Amino acid sequence: MPLRIRLLLLYLKYFTKTVYGKITPEELRKIHDKEEASSMDLIDFPPIKMFKIWEEAVSMRDGEAIKVRIFRPVEKADLPLIVFFHGGGFVTRTVSFYDRVCRRIASVNQSVVVSVDYRLAPEHKFPGPLMDCYDAMLWAVENAGVLGADASRLTVMGDSAGGNLATTVCLMAREERGPKIGHQVLIYPSTDARLCHPSIDQLREGYLLTKEMMIWFLNHYKSREEDIHDPYMSPLLAEDLSGLPPAFVLTAEYDPLKDEGKAYALKLREAGVPVRFKEYKGMIHGFFCMPRITKQAILAHEEISASLQF
Question: Where are the alpha helices (DSSP H) in the chain?
Answer without folding.
Answer: 3-15, 25-43, 99-109, 128-142, 144-147, 161-176, 198-202, 211-221, 258-270, 295-307
